[in-house]
Specification:
Elements: H1 23-28, H2 49-54, H3 60-65, H4 67-81, E1 86-87, H5 94-98, E2 103-106, E3 110-113, H6 120-123, H7 135-148, E4 153-158, H8 160-169, H9 177-185, H10 187-211, E5 215-220, H11 228-234, H12 236-244, E6 253-257, H13 264-269, E7 274-276, H14 283-290, E8 296-297, H15 309-322
Parallel strand pairs: 1-4, 4-5, 5-6, 6-7, 7-8
Antiparallel strand pairs: 2-3
Helix pairs in contact: 4-7, 7-10, 8-9, 8-10, 9-10, 10-12
Length: about 350
């Protein structure tokens, strides 16, 4: 979700009594808001010198499992930019490692799995995630909630399809050949694998929600490589199961995918309160495709952060206007006299 917001080096004083009253949570529920909230899809990461400094000599997986580092890194963009919400610092493969999958996040490559999952015997190695597997995640969320005060924290987990792809391919893939071959060649094994991963993802979301996260996001990095038919047949029910596992917590659920412009309605129908839209689809088109049924999250192209400020600012204001008709947005028009936009990525 994107809007003009004052450019600030530090967060402004809280104007709400609790995260539940914040612009982010109200927008996610489709309620009127004083402004459309701004937050970073990722943790500002490599753009912040303080992030690079605190990560020196510390691997990604270790960083995600140390409450001191998780808390510090999550708070960094909030301190620097005064955004409307924090996104929990983690990685989508953290719960896989927590249930015993032998993997590593290799710099410049991504997650690499030592023993890919391709047979029924491989599937038998996966077990359910329980809270005792990730006590550090509970501790991190609680520390952050205490530090953030009225600023909401967004927890997240990887969606079953994306986790399955990493496990089946053994790492990142350009075309997901092995993944698609398993989907079509052994549909029962595929569904059993994704059902297991839905339980893992759902449990990881639940740990964060029960510890105090104000919203929860299911992140599907690779779903955009699927046709609508394949998404419906092989994926939708498992994403729905992961989202359903936290439905009783009463916090908004965000469903985001990369390159999923053709799947937006299906992703909403899987149980989302908010549908994420990446930069490949305008909010105008996304609103038309989803029929105005869900608040929309998105969607500045991160590459524009390298453009001159005038071009970047203009595009941010355009995005705000494109999404103005969606539920959970401000009635205040974005104009040239609006405060300087804070871009999201």
């Amino acid at each position: 979700m994107t809007t003009p917001s004052p450019n600030a080096a530090t967060p402004s004083a809280p104007t709400t009594a609790s995260p539940a009253d914040s612009a982010l949570v109200r927008a996610a529920r489709g309620l009127p808001v004083p402004h459309t909230p701004v937050w970073f899809m990722r943790q500002a990461g490599r753009s912040l010198p303080e992030y690079r400094k605190v990560r020196e000599g510390v691997g990604m997986l270790e960083s995600c499992r140390r409450p001191d580092l998780v808390t510090e890194i999550t708070l960094q963009p909030v301190r620097r930019h005064g955004v409307d919400a924090a996104i929990f610092f983690s990685d989508i493969v953290v719960p896989l490692a927590a249930v015993g999958v032998d993997l590593d996040i290799v710099p410049g490559v991504g997650p690499v799995v030592a023993e890919p999952v391709r047979t029924r015997a491989d599937l038998a190695r996966l077990r359910d995630l329980v809270a005792d597997d990730v006590p550090d995640i509970t501790e991190s969320v609680r520390m952050l909630v205490a530090e953030l005060g009225a600023t909401p924290l967004i927890g997240f987990a990887g969606a079953p399809f994306t986790l399955a792809s990493y496990l089946v391919e053994g790492g990142p893939s350009r075309n997901h050949e092995r993944t698609k071959a398993l989907m079509h060649g052994d549909p029962q094994l595929w569904h059993d694998l994704c059902a297991q991963l839905a339980r893992v993802s759902g449990a990881f979301l639940r740990v964060q929600g029960e510890a105090g996260a104000s919203a929860l996001q299911l992140f599907d990095s690779w779903a955009g490589f699927l046709s609508r038919a394949d998404y419906t047949r092989f994926v939708a029910e498992h994403s729905a199961a992961a989202l359903a596992s936290v439905a009783d917590l009463g916090v908004p659920r965000i469903h985001f995918g990369v390159g999923t412009g053709e799947l937006l309605t299906l992703m909403g129908e899987a149980g989302a309160d908010v549908v994420g839209v990446d930069y490949r689809v305008s909010l105008t088109d996304a609103l038309e495709r989803t029929g105005g049924r869900w608040p929309l999250q998105g969607n500045l192209d991160p590459a524009l952060l390298f453009a001159p400020w005038e071009a970047l600012s203009r595009r941010v204001v355009e995005i705000v206007e494109e999404g103005r008709a969606a539920p959970g947005t401000s009635s205040t028009s974005a104009t040239a006299s609006s405060p300087t936009p804070t871009p999201t990525s």
